[in-house]
Each structure stands twice: as C-alpha cells, then as structure tokens.
UniProtKB/TrEMBL annotation, chains A, B, C:
<dbReference type="GO" id="GO:0005886">
    <property type="term" value="C:plasma membrane"/>
</dbReference>
<feature type="transmembrane region" description="Helical">
    <location>
        <begin position="92"/>
        <end position="111"/>
    </location>
</feature>
<feature type="transmembrane region" description="Helical">
    <location>
        <begin position="6"/>
        <end position="24"/>
    </location>
</feature>
<keyword id="KW-1133">Transmembrane helix</keyword>
<feature type="transmembrane region" description="Helical">
    <location>
        <begin position="60"/>
        <end position="80"/>
    </location>
</feature>
<dbReference type="InterPro" id="IPR005115">
    <property type="entry name" value="Gly_transporter"/>
</dbReference>
<feature type="domain" description="Glycine transporter">
    <location>
        <begin position="94"/>
        <end position="166"/>
    </location>
</feature>
<protein>
    <submittedName>
        <fullName>Putative membrane protein</fullName>
    </submittedName>
</protein>
<feature type="transmembrane region" description="Helical">
    <location>
        <begin position="150"/>
        <end position="169"/>
    </location>
</feature>
<feature type="domain" description="Glycine transporter">
    <location>
        <begin position="7"/>
        <end position="81"/>
    </location>
</feature>
<keyword id="KW-0472">Membrane</keyword>
<feature type="transmembrane region" description="Helical">
    <location>
        <begin position="175"/>
        <end position="194"/>
    </location>
</feature>
<keyword id="KW-0812">Transmembrane</keyword>
<keyword id="KW-1003">Cell membrane</keyword>
<comment type="similarity">
    <text>Belongs to the UPF0126 family.</text>
</comment>
<dbReference type="Pfam" id="PF03458">
    <property type="entry name" value="Gly_transporter"/>
</dbReference>
<feature type="transmembrane region" description="Helical">
    <location>
        <begin position="31"/>
        <end position="48"/>
    </location>
</feature>
Length: 203, 203, 203
C-alpha cells in the first residue's frame, strides 16, 4: 500500500535536514557538526512531539532509515556543498516545507491519540517549529519563532485549524492534508516575500 | 469538592505566565512571542516534572483550560500592556509565587509516586525553577538560578524540606502546604529586598 | 556480586561532575550553581538516554546515592577549590573518562532494549556528549561537539562501533567494554594532545 503519511514524513525530514545543513555549512562546521545540526533540525520536532505524547518508540528509533539518510546527506553536503555565507532565501523554502508537513502530521497524531483540536493544534505548532528553533539557536541565529520580521508560528497554528475544519467538512484524508499543507507553505513563502508581520515596531 | 491543589496550580500558572509576558513585552515581542514565552514559563516546569516522572498525559494536555487561559492572557497583554523597559521589581513577586507553588506541588507529586524526600526535593526545585530559567534564557537574561546576586534555587530546596518536615509533624494537608509556600515566597521576596546571597564575590 | 556496570557508571558520574564543577568554579558560581552544573553535566546524558528509550524510573531517581554524592562534591568544591581561570587541560581528562563510559553504557542499554547497532551508536553518542554540551552551553563555552579544533563526537561514534564488533568477536562482557572505553579515552586525549581534526579551515 502506498503510505502517504510516511512519504510526507520522509519529505519533511529531508527538507528540514537540508535547511539545517545549509546553515551548518554557512558556519563552516565540520561533517560531524553538519550531521548533528541536520539530525536535530529534522528530528527534533518529532522527538519533542513523541516525548510529550508518550508515543514510544520515538519515530526515528522505529524508522532507522531516517537517521541513516541524514548521515548520507551530511557526508555529501560536507564534501560537496561549499561553505559560504548564508543566503536567507535558500533556507526559507525547505524550512516552509518542513514546517507545513510536521505541523499537520503532529496535529494529526495528537487527534489519533484522542486529544482535542486545541491541544492538537498546540502540539502541531511545537512539532513544526521546534526543530527549526533548535537549528537557529545552535547556530547562533535568532529563531524564526522569536523574530518579528515575518509571521511563522501563527501560520502553523492557522494551518492546523484549517486542516481540522476541512477534515470535518470533507470526511476524507488527502484533501484536508493537501489544503493544510499548501496553506502553510504558500502563506509562509508569501509572508517572507511580501513582508507580512503581526506587529509593526513602535520604539 | 473544593480542590486546593488544582486552585494552587492555576494560581501558579497565572503568576508564571504574567512574569513571562512582562519580560516578553519588555523585549517588544509580537503576540505569538508573548504567548510562547508565557506558555513556556508557566508550563515548562510542570512538563519537565511530568516527563521525568513518566506522569502522562502531561498536566496541560489533561487540563486544556490552562493553555487556553494563557492564550487569552497573551492577547490581553499584547494589546493592552505597553512595551516598556523591564522593571525588575514587577517580575519578582509573580515569579516568587510561581516558584513557591510549583516547588511544593512538584515535590508532593514525587512523594505521591513513592520517591524519597531527597529525590522529591530535587524534583520540586526543577519544577519550580525550570520555567523561569527557560523564560530568562529565551529572553536573553541570565537565569535567576545562575545569578549570584540573590538566593533562588536554595530557597526552593529549603522550602521543600520544610514542607516534608511539617507534613511529618502535622499529619495534615493544608498546614504544611501553607508553611512551605509562605516560606518560599517570603524568603524569596526578602532575599531580593535585603540583598541576601550565598557568596560574596572575591575576584 | 561485583557489578562492573554500576561501578563504571559511578566513575563516569564523578568524572563528569568534576569537569562541570571545575568549569562552574572558573565562572565564580556560588555553591548552588556549582551543584546545578555538576548535576546537569553528570546526569544530563543519562537522563536524555532514559527519556528517549522510555526507560523509567530515570537512573538518578532509581540510584539516589548519585545526586547525593554530587551534592557532597559540590559543597567540597565550593569551599575548597579556589575560583580561578579555567585551564583547559584539567577538564579534558575527566571529560574524556565521562565521554567514554557514558557512550559505551548508553549504547549497551540500547542493545539490551533490542535496538539495532546504528540506533544504539546514535544513542551512545547522545548519552556521552549531551551532559558536556549542556555544561558548556550553560557556562557560555562553545560545546566540544560544535568546536572544530579537535574531534569529539566522532570518537564516541567510532568507539561504540568498535565495542559492538569486539562484542560480536569475543562473546564476552569485560573485554569489549575495556576495548571500547580505552579507545575513546586514549583517542580523545591524543586528539587534544596532537591536534587531530576532521577538517582544516578554509576561509
């Protein structure tokens, strides 16, 4: 059977790992640092989610092909991708993909375990944002979630609710998944492109 | 039935959330940042406690009215509380309330689960101090627990032991709770007011 | 019965606690700060390991003599060990001992719980490096794992694999343990002494 959830998870892991490795390379880290940042960015959100919901074994312990894939990616990145100053634009897209996939899948897992929409949306936001927040903290960047320059966590939150409502409306699996995911990715890209924020600075 | 433990937990959550939101506003964060810091400050200690003692579901997942309350507080704070430079004095009181309540309740939960007084006091200190430590770290302040200017964690530790001893002495629930709680809040306020510390600097 | 695993764990806890307390004293922390850093350095890796593998109660909750020992050490250190500028050389040896012991024991626990060699080696590296990484982060040093000046995590990873292979070869408990442990400690000391690194800087 073709398992859409597993495929999405894999895409999310790869996207977040790429975003982490680009940042790690821009800091001129060695291969171990590149792997560590890639691993933490890709699997940090899911690990927090599984710990908080007591969902054992952790998903990367159950699916060891995911850390193996990240290890291979780290080797390729370290010897092939030149260390260079970070270009923000190259991270925004993989980060948005990872944010979208992990937010929706985290929220869905919470629903599966019987939690309410509100709790599920919080757990979705945590799953979607935690890996990226660790990446930015460990690489001495201000995490997106604490930057005021563009909306980030609120897109994930809104995307989860859009997903719940369309699930309730469509009685279907793939349509709501597509709606929630596209919403998060597109709005996030638009927020960066058109400079959308929640609050203007007022000294 | 009037549940004193639940009421105290609620007061502790509100007090810590206020302390977090004051700091977040002083850093001019947007509403999502204010909610995030408030949430982490109020629920971080209890989450660590529940994870370490394998006490599932986490208490904010079980009592979803707590994150909902924090969300409402964050909205009110963001649009009503002017962003201004932090005045230390306004945080010390809510922080002391939260420290007292979570230390005692964390220690009590550990006793309920059959742990020794020593382990319970360590878990009490972690429950009481972790939320505030995350708040200060995320807002680029030095956490109280690592500041030498006033005693902090040692008050929580002493308060837990005072609570255990008075529990053993009084065979009662509310008297030891009151003693432990008042001790922590009053000594903490006095430590800040009268500049009590464990160690003077010696270059 | 003479329990070699328990003895090693105790040595690892003491070694990591010493490394943490030396750093904490060099930052002129008060006794509570010294205890906190010692506790987190010594028990952080094992706590992460137990949480990730859902191995409850946590080992310092089960063996309360370990935090009690750390508390006694913190008191001795605070009043006896003069606060002074850190000399890197004094931390490298206890840190290498702790790294070796916790990497191997973490990996072994993962094998006991039925995980694959690859997952066990990742959990071994996390167990071995997490305490030291927290110590360095909390004391405002760059964690070894993110420094490029000498290899660190890769030694732990290689040591775990050497341990697995010699276990498979020798059908024995103590020989592989000794091989894995000595490998990590000696190679780590040599890496610092002879300046071995994975990657030269290329601006």
């Amino acid at each position: 059977m073709f398992d859409i959830i597993y495929l999405l998870e894999m895409i999310g892991v790869v996207a977040f790992a790429i975003s982490g490795m680009i940042v790690a390379r821009s800091k001129n880290m060695d291969p171990v640092g590149v792997f560590t940042i890639g691993f933490i960015t890709a699997l940090g959100g899911g690990t927090l989610r599984d710990l908080m919901m007591d969902n054992h074994p952790l998903y990367w312990i159950k699916h060891q092909e995911q850390p193996i894939l990240i290890l291979c990616m780290a080797l390729v990145f370290s010897y092939w991708h030149r260390a260079e100053r970070i270009r923000e634009s190259r991270i925004v897209f993989p980060d948005a993909i990872g944010l979208g996939i992990f937010s929706i899948l985290g929220a869905q897992l919470a629903l599966d375990l019987g939690h309410s929409w509100f709790i599920a949306s919080l757990l979705g936001v945590m799953t979607g944002t935690f890996g990226g927040a660790l990446r930015d903290t460990l690489c001495n960047e201000v995490p997106y979630i604490f930057r005021k320059d563009h909306i980030y966590a609120s897109i994930s939150f809104a995307g989860c609710w859009l997903y719940f409502v369309s699930q309730w409306y469509f009685h279907n699996e793939t349509v709501p998944l597509t709606i929630g995911l596209l919403f998060i990715v597109i709005v996030r890209m638009a927020a960066v492109r058109f400079d959308i924020r929640l609050q203007r600075d007022h000294g």
